[in-house]
Design brief:
It is built from 2 helices and no strands. The chain has about 80 residues and is mainly alpha-helical. The chain is flat.
Length: about 80
């Protein structure tokens, strides 16, 4: 026969808002998501910092990545199609 166990304590759910949405809900949600994490950058919600980028460097980096992917696929293809 199973023994009776007590139910977990019933705590109010702070996410159950009913008809009321607090003004700082987004800030509280962001704080909850970032809790115990190391933030890379501290900015307000909705604010972004745009740093200038060099289009030539970005294009070269993208091309290098695509060449690496192509070479990896070609290596796998040659491995499986090699004569035994």
């Amino acid at each position: 026969m199973a023994t009776a166990t007590s139910s977990p304590t019933c705590e109010p759910d702070w996410l159950h808002l009913g008809n009321y949405t607090p003004k700082n809900l987004a800030r509280g949600a962001r704080a909850a998501l970032l809790r115990d994490s190391s933030p890379v950058e501290v900015t307000d919600i909705g604010e972004q910092q745009h740093l200038p980028i060099d289009i030539t460097d970005a294009a070269n980096q993208l091309a290098d990545e695509q060449v690496a992917v192509y070479n990896a696929k070609l290596k796998v293809f040659r491995t499986f199609c090699a004569p035994l």
